[in-house]
């Protein structure tokens, strides 16, 4: 479009395409929020989209008033809702009530403010850890509510499950298109690399970093045998964009690599060792708990929609994440 | 100056003007209240419990030591279907506000009220307390059902994180005075009572919706009220407890004469046998006799009954077979 001057205005004004979507991303500074920000900035954003990334600094989402004010201020047309109270195993066990209450409040405030301000679509974020503890494998989207979750994090799990219930309520009563995705284990830059409280892959990356520094062995907790499906945060971000733009169901969708790409913890550790060129010894502390052996999730629904979507190869994604951590060690969350 | 006993319990009853609240009020007034108890019945006129501020103010005003939490947004089938979101949100807010205000003001015990309609839609029978969360509820009232289920989740959270004794009861179909007798929106028994009343007035037929074959366990509100008092005073678990009526073992035609119900002191050997769950596993004794030597029996539910053996539930009723005497006039 050619710039044109507007009568009475001294400077010429460039006429841009009208903004069709104003997308508010809650939890915008977290692992997934940062990945979406990067993917958008690197060229996957569209000219008719305006992206706004907010964090707890911008509003306390456990407060209905502050959440409403945030929505009034930004007037989003779409929302990617990533904000949550999260934590590792031991924190969950100790604070199940708080994980339940604060997440219920956050989710209710965000969904209801979205409804009241006429947001067209909300994509919330669930997790495969909320599925029933006793279940068959692979798990799929229809099984979320088929039994109690693991007792260690029942507060967090039920609060996340109730996003799906509330989405259904908004759809049935008001026709709102509020939906959710269910990623498996996410990893990437800007993660929480705390060894005690973080998740397995960032914890291992941090351990290798320290082991290299100290010239010590790498000790992996457990036998290394449990298997996990890992999804690179940048791949997840691209899928979030697709869900936001194209996925029309209210029922949630699992976002994961296929069952065939499940890796053991040992294989994950070896990928990190290779990526960081660690030459020391690799040990397994079998006195530590293994956790669930398998949590295999089916990505058949995703593959029906996107048969050709290419995930970043696991070792490459690990390499990129390790490189980011080494470069950003001082500022990384740990 | 008359010296009164010090008040050991100040009991706040939310939803105090509803079916169950009114029954508790009556039972307390009729002599089952204790001298060390002060009972406060509140309704939506006293506070909007969907507001955290108003709920907190209510608790600050009355400073209860105990709470019986009955307040909820309730409704019939069609209202639920149309407003599942509102049933979810408003009840979650009410429950969170009541439980959290109770926690913040140091309430010793909260007894909330669930319902058998929140159990999994696809399930084996009989249902028991351990099965509440084993699958999705019926889709027609999923909002209400999940909100009620989450009371149990939140009770567990308060116990694990703060040691609070917040628990819940699960009544089956309650009926009695002060119910909602609206034919469209009320429940089956009060709806039928209203229909019969109108049919008599108009000289018309009584039309029952459906085939009449579905089966329900009904519990009289006054019996439920007495059980609430026991739960408040004696039931120490955080896990919920089903409070259900039970039919006599023998079969009979509910509309025929010749059925009676004899009160019996319990426990009886027959009763003790019934305490085992169908799987044979000994159920934890979830209640004790009313007072030593005093018997507790359900108000005879006539006409009501089954032509087959009812599932074993913690029950208080007589287990003797029907006699051939005339039905008791006392209900």
TrEMBL record, chain A:
InterPro entries: Epimerase_deHydtase, GDP_fucose/colitose_synth, NAD(P)-bd_dom_sf. It is an enzyme of class 1 (oxidoreductase). Keywords: Isomerase, Multifunctional enzyme, NADP, Oxidoreductase. Pathway: Nucleotide-sugar biosynthesis; GDP-L-fucose biosynthesis via de novo pathway; GDP-L-fucose from GDP-alpha-D-mannose: step 2/2. It catalyses: GDP-beta-L-fucose + NADP(+) = GDP-4-dehydro-alpha-D-rhamnose + NADPH + H(+). Signal peptide: none annotated. PANTHER family: GDP-L-FUCOSE SYNTHASE. Homodimer. Belongs to the NAD(P)-dependent epimerase/dehydratase family. Fucose synthase subfamily. This is GDP-L-fucose synthase. It comes from Melopsittacus undulatus. The lineage of its organism: Eukaryota, Metazoa, Chordata, Craniata, Vertebrata. The gene is LOC115946621.
């Amino acid at each position: 479009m050619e710039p044109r001057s507007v009568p009475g205005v001294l400077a010429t004004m460039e006429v841009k395409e009208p903004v069709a979507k104003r997308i508010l991303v809650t939890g915008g500074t977290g692992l997934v929020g940062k990945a979406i920000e990067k993917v958008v900035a690197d060229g996957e954003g569209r000219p008719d989209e305006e992206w706004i990334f907010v964090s707890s600094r911008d509003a306390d989402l456990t407060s209905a008033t502050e959440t409403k004010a945030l929505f009034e201020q930004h007037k989003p047309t779409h929302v990617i809702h990533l904000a949550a109270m999260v934590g590792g195993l031991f924190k969950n066990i100790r604070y199940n009530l708080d994980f339940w209450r604060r997440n219920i409040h956050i989710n209710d405030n965000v969904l209801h403010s979205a409804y009241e301000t006429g947001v067209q679509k909300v994509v919330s974020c669930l997790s495969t850890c909320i599925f029933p503890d006793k279940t068959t494998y692979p798990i799929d989207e229809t099984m979320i509510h088929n039994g109690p979750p693991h007792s260690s994090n029942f507060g967090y799990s039920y609060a996340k499950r109730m996003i799906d219930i509330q989405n259904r309520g908004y759809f049935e009563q008001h026709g709102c298109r509020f939906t959710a995705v269910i990623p498996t284990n996410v990893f990437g830059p800007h993660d929480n690399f705390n060894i005690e409280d973080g998740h397995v892959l960032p914890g291992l990356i941090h351990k290798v970093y320290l082991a290299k520094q100290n010239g010590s062995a790498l000790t992996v907790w457990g036998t290394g045998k449990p298997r996990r499906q890992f999804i690179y945060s940048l791949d997840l971000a691209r899928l979030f964009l697709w869900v936001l733009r194209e996925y029309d169901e209210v029922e949630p969708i699992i976002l994961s690599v296929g069952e065939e790409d499940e890796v053991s913890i040992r294989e994950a550790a070896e990928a990190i060792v290779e990526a960081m060129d660690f030459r020391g010894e690799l040990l397994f502390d079998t006195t530590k708990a293994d956790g669930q052996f398998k949590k295999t999730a089916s990505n058949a629904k995703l593959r029906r929609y996107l048969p050709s979507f290419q995930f970043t190869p696991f070792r490459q994604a690990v390499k990129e994440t390790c490189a980011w951590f080494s470069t950003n060690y001082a500022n990384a969350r740990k």
